Amino acid sequence: MVKSDFQIKQLPVPSDSPPPPAGQPLPPLSVRAGEDNLRGGGRMGSGSSSLKHIPDGQQVMEETGFSAAHLLRLHERFDFLDKDGRGHLRPEDFEEIRELTENPIGGRIIAAFFPPEKERLDFPSFVRILAHFRPIGKNRSRDRAQPEQANSRTGKLKFAFELYDQDRDGKISREELLQVLRAMLGLQVTEEQLRSIAERAIQEADLDGDGAISFDEFKKSLEKVDMEHKMNIRFLK
Length: 237
Known about the structure:
Blueprint (H helix, E strand, L loop, with lengths): L2 E6 L26 H4 L18 H8 L3 H14 L16 H4 L4 H7 L10 H8 L22 H12 L6 E2 L1 H12 L5 H15 L7 E2 H7 L5 H4 E6 L1
């Protein structure tokens, strides 16, 4: 029996010290694709038994760093979500993952799989997004001539940054930060308290004083955050 565990345990906030009032911690945001939701028990035909049946399988494996075994498991899960056998996923197909639909920022996570104005996701694109959740290779040196790996610390941070930066202008505005905080904290704190948290986070992370958080500022503010713990995909036998 194969299980998978794909999760964003908590969306990192760009500041070490803007907790909600009364010391209340930010609530965990879990995204789990467990056995009941994503196991490929429905269609286990030849499409899941060999890499040669996976579109661009070898190339995708080289691009993402997933092993052949992991790629086959991901293909099973893709097939399970693609119930109509179209060969692509739509945003509504992710509603099969209950933990995503219950997640306060589940809509943002689903949207991250789909480029603007694109409503179809093929298997290679599905895997390239999930590559951000691979464990960071701690002992692997990177050829500087090669592009940054999706599962590098920088790759994980870029993925998290874009969950905030919804207008894709390269900065997190106060309003974008507030939108995430509202989703994360809900009715636990007042609007005034939320604005205070957002203002404090902006002040601490905004090094150039432009009133927003750039990616470099976001990255620096999260220097001590364990991104491996926050964003991971695990396969358990």
